[in-house]
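Dock NAP; give full complex structure.
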Amino acid sequence: MPTFKVAIVGAGPAGYFTAQAFQKAQRDDLSFAIDMIERLPTPWGLVRSGVAPDHPKIKTVSKVFEKIAKEPNFRLFANVDLGKDVSLKDLRDQYDVVVLATGASRGRKLGIAGEELKNSLSAAEFVPWYNAHPDFVDVEVDLSSTTAVVIGAGNVAMDVARILAIDPTELDPTDVAEHALVKLKQSNIRTVIICGRRGPEHAAFTAPELRDLPKLENTDVYIDLKQIEEAIKHIEDMDVVEKDLRSNIEAMKVIAEHEKKGVARKLEIKFLSTPTEIKGNGKVEEIVFQKNKVEGGKVIATSETFSIKTGIVITAIGYDSVEYPGITIESGRVSNIAGHVEHNVYAVGWAKRGPTGVIGTNKSDSTDVVDLIIENLKEPKTSEGITTLLKSGHEVIDQTAWEKINASEVISGEIAGKPRVKEVDWKQLISLGRS
Ligand code: NAP
């Protein structure tokens, strides 16, 4: 029976669902030996370092990942950096198939004056900071002002705004980074304003996330009812209205009409506001917006402007894939056609399609790419795989080592009344895996 060697680079949701699709595609006459390669000493990608700590249900997908990892044809090689510890060329030569599941980790920029000021941050820094990503522990986050502004009308903007706006004690029973929890408990921020450049009918939020907002116990959430009523009128003029759009608008109307609790913590969603400049003397002090309006289905700029005094701006306007030797990035993602990059190299997840979709989207997407890979398979190679590529003494975190790290974090969590206490130090993570 031919066994094809598969290298999956990136141990996030897209990587695991690709491994699962290969496992499911095995037949009497076809099998796969899967090596998953990951730069960090820990797997699970955005499930560990992206999903908001107050959304623990979303993280339960990690149980599926662990089941995939338990299959006999799966091996984890974490703490292995593509481009540094192994080259793409070497992987291509050693494996029958290389699948890039490397995501999109670079935050997109607004490209406006003042964006480089201190405390103008990208969600690509702020989210991994509060999620204990070892590379982002030292991000300087100053929460001393009373107002925070978040740019973008998507789910990442909403996560960021919620983390800043809720009472930090609500994060006590979560796996939020310890360093972030300390900072959030000292935070002066009481008003968080999410600013979207288009109307409510164009927002990228999803309805389940919007429906959760009025349930916040210690935060009042505001949306201007007039903006929602306008959006409803615009929707009535549309020929076809998608179900998701109706659900979104209904959820936003509930927020706008919801009786407020009169608490000090406020989260506001403002639409039709394009940021044009961030002002400040060395550090963020104010952000200027141009007001927009919707006419004939199009968003157009007006001559009106307004500004918000704020000490922190966080931009959550999407992500781009990061380039590395041998890979071309086009429009922020790995250049590919239906997942095929070139030769025996493929891409899945955000690396393939850009930063869209929820975790589950990767399941069908990865299955489609694996179907294409199987169609293109020829004769299996006789090669050694990754072990001959790594320098002797290179410390790999394999599945057993990861399980030790995982167990240690979960035990620390049990003591603290949390799902886990994440270790943030790279060396310490490796030493936990060795123990
Ligand atoms: P997103 O959903 O694409 O939203 C990006 C937002 O940024 C949009 O509102 C977009 O507005 C705005 N934007 C883009 N360029 C801008 C600019 N130059 N100036 C002002 N605004 C700009 O991206 P995301 O929030 O990063 O989320 C990525 C994916 O992860 C999404 O599919 C999301 O649903 C998913 N996710 C899901 C969850 C969850 O399920 N709980 C949580 C987090 C993320 P325009 O529409 O006008 O371009």
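Observed: The longest helix spans residues 399-416.
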